[in-house]
Write a structure and sequence with these properties.
Order of helices and strands: HHHHHEHHHHHHHHHEEEEHHHEE
Oligomer: single chain
CATH topology of the domain at 85-138 and 216-407: Cytochrome p450
CATH class of the domain at 85-138 and 216-407: Mainly Alpha
Distance between the termini: 56 Å
Number of strands: 7
């Protein structure tokens, strides 16, 4: 469902603002000219709606084109239960064992497919491993083998939730009663209410499962890495050789050993540069009036950091559209928020908490055990086009990733 109502639905409510703005202007008409605050420059805009008409279906790309020429959000407040999410939780213990076990399970699953030569849907596999790790951390049970694994509604619910978290709401941009009407007429409020109720139902199932007697307790940011390597077989071979040389004949990779895989680290960094998990990160908000490069910024100003565009800025990156892991060779630039030209997970105290799960969740074991090839009839140049049609918090490939795993045989 599109999250922004058609222009003809918005127009009547926007026109209501004209007399209100004129009245406000008369009430605050000064007796003498006042000094205008220097505001930051912006692309050409229309009265009332500003630049809303210039935002296309892909927010980060629209903002990037416009630039070339954690604030209060209605969706986030509703869908995170008034911001009670992991982003505000305290530091927790290491989840190394959980991550290693879930990687082993995924590899075993891929091994079964490699024997038959059947293409593997890596989108589904990587969603399952991410879900399993988070499920075990948050709920104490694995996603694999649970009643949620074969429920398509879970994947769809996550997709819908991300779309709504990145959506635009009249209540965030217009006076309260006008925003209230806009959100209801446009259908945004109805969609938000639907997703909120589905989330309630999901969490209720989790709670009920925890309350069951004699419940069995377990004893113990993205598939673009494989996509880029599949598009660059020479680079894949180089990464595989490094992994296999480091690991040798051992059948399992430990997290400590991944620290020695320098080329794999460069591949991961380059993947994050080209495909940040959340292209515009999470919105921020100014807490007080401030001045940036001579421009006055009002309090409660919405700030969107376009990590996708920053990572393609020619001032910082040579040939930014090319997948070149070697650009990080000997470079201290990292993705933990200390280098502002590279912010796939954000920065500061509100850096994405998923970084601490993801940074150790590397696919070195996949590269050690498997080579990957395209199914018969598939073009060698994989389609990297992103999904569009909504202002989602995250983006994914428009075309599903299906590859055939070929098991590597260690020479004696």
């Amino acid at each position: 469902m599109a999250l922004i109502a058609p222009f003809f639905i918005w127009l009547p409510f926007l026109l209501l603002l004209i007399p209100l703005l004129q009245l406000k202007k008369k009430q605050h008409l000064p007796n003498k000219p006042q000094k205008q605050n220097p505001l930051p420059p912006s692309p050409p805009k229309l009265p009332l709606i500003g630049n809303l008409h210039q935002l296309g279906s892909s927010l980060h790309q629209s903002l990037w084109q416009l630039s070339k020429n954690r604030p209060s959000s209605t969706g986030a407040r509703r869908l995170t239960y008034n911001y009670l999410d992991i982003g505000f939780s305290p530091y927790v213990q290491s989840y190394r064992k959980i991550r290693e076990e879930e990687v082993d399970k995924m590899v075993n699953s891929i091994s079964a497919s490699s024997s038959s030569g059947v293409p593997v849907d890596l989108t589904e596999k990587l969603f399952a491993i991410a879900a399993s790790i988070i499920f075990r951390i948050a709920y104490g049970t694995s996603y694999r083998g649970s009643k949620f694994e074969h429920a398509k509604s879970i994947y769809e619910l996550i997709q819908d939730t991300e779309a709504m978290l990145g959506g635009m709401y009249g209540a965030d941009y217009f006076p309260s009663w006008i925003g209230w009407v806009i959100d209801r007429v446009s259908g945004v409020h109805k969609e938000l209410d639907r997703i909120s109720k589905e989330l309630d139902g999901f969490f209720q199932q989790v709670i009920d499962d925890h309350l069951k007697p004699r419940r069995r307790v377990d004893d113990e940011q993205t598939h673009e890495d494989i996509v880029d390597l599949a598009n660059n077989p020479g680079l894949m071979k180089k990464a595989q050789e490094e992994v296999r040389k480091c690991i040798g004949n051992k059948g399992k990779v430990t997290e400590t050993e991944t620290d020695h895989l320098q080329y794999l680290k460069m591949v991961i960094k380059e993947t994050l540069r080209l495909h940040p998990p959340a292209p515009t990160i999470l919105p921020r908000e100014t807490a007080s009036r401030c001045k940036i490069q001579g421009y006055d910024i009002d309090p409660k100003t919405l700030v969107l950091v376009n990590a996708w565009a920053i990572a393609r800025d020619l001032r910082f990156w040579k040939d930014p559209e090319e997948f070149i892991p070697e650009r990080f060779d000997g470079s201290s630039v990292d993705y933990k928020g200390q280098h502002f030209e590279f912010l796939p997970f954000g920065a500061g105290r509100r850096v994405c908490p998923g970084i601490y799960i993801w940074e150790r969740q590397r696919w070195s074991l996949d590269l050690q055990i498997f080579s990957w090839k395209l199914p018969d009839g598939m073009e060698e140049d994989l389609n990297m086009e992103e999904t569009s049609g909504s202002l989602s918090l995250t983006v994914s490939k428009k075309t599903p990733l299906n590859l055939i795993p070929v098991k590597f045989c260690q020479k004696e």
